[in-house]
Amino acid sequence: MDTKLKVAVLGTGIMGAAMARNLLRAGHEVSVWNRDAAKTEPLAAEGARRAASPADAVEAAGLVLTMLYDAAAVQEVMRAAAPGLRPGTAWVQSTTVGIPDVPALAGLARELGLDLVEAPVSGTRAPAEAGQLLVLAAGRGDVRPRVAPVLDAIGARTIWTGQDPAEGSATRLKLVVNSWVIAASNAAGEVVALAEALGVDPQQFLGVIDGGGLDLPYLRTKMGLILDGELEPASFAVDTARKDAHLIVDAAAEKGLKLDGAEAYAARLDRVAEQGRGKQDMAAAYYAGR
Ligand code: NAP
Question: Which atom of ligand 1 is nearest to the CA of 68?
């Protein structure tokens, strides 16, 4: 069976560009569209077709991959793509969205005659660039083999969470994972800020936890970005993390659960965004206490 597909990638930001690159490396025919067209330029040099509009990008595509900021952007872009879409096209929706957004996107897929696979991803810039994301996916059994070549190109592994993408099982798992990511990243910033305020060398702190149960590669990565002043280019930007932090707080509240930590992390990310750090890595939440 020929597993080379015509794939349209809508959204070539940090994650979408890396995914498009890995699809090209895997030999797929890739068309790309991004609101800021400059971001598709480097992909053209690697063999992607730069589309003038979402409708142009999806023309003749057998599979559409969306990797946009949020659900509103997905709705807007997919509606703009509608004139070029053929019924029966597979739609891999990887943007991180809220739980109530999932049935709405499933409704849009039905309206457009698309076979939706809900496919948020775990992993950031480096794993995305290496094609090593973890894909959390929900979709019908008969659609899975059609999207497998794409999921295999962008990820190291796919965890199937359910058959019906409208139920949001993949998004629920994704938000749980991100609650940990956002907590750990914020905690890294607070550890550095507290150490500095108390006159403790952050390296001394790392020496204490070295190799023990409290040690964590992710903590070291985020602390390193803060201490080395390498908050740009972001792996996971403040603006994106605050969007996700609010999705987590809202998802919990909907279930009658108050997440004080997540609320505080969302507020810290909002605060540094107001300081003009929205495009920096979310480790910039370190500056929220000032
Ligand atoms: P990003 O670099 O900021 O990319 C966001 C993309 O959305 C850009 O292509 C942007 O276009 C586009 N966009 C935003 N609003 C739009 C609108 N109204 N209409 C059309 N396009 C719009 O962010 P990212 O890090 O790649 O994240 C993309 C998605 O993946 C998010 O849902 C995020 O939560 C999720 N995610 C991110 C990570 C990570 O570590 N970075 C990990 C897992 C999942 P412009 O370039 O024109 O602004």
Answer: 7
Give the Cα separation of 91 and 89 in Å (integer).
6
pLDDT for 67-91, tens place per residue? 999 999 999 999 999 999 999 999 9
Which atom of ligand 1 is least distant from the CA of 122? 43
Q: Which of 68, 79, 218 to mutate to test the pocket of ligand 1 (most atoms within 8 A of CB)?
A: 68
What is the Å distance from ligand 1's center to 216 Cα? Answer: 27
Q: Give the domain extent around 89.
A: 6-167
pLDDT tens-digit map of 97-106 = 999 999 999 9
Closest CA to ligand 1's atom 30: 95
Could you give the maximum distance between any two Cα atoms of the chain, in Å?
63
If asked whether residues 137 and 60 sit together in one domain, one would say: yes
> Which atom of ligand 1 lies nearest, measured to the CA of 69?
7
Structurally, the chain folds into a number of domains equal to 2
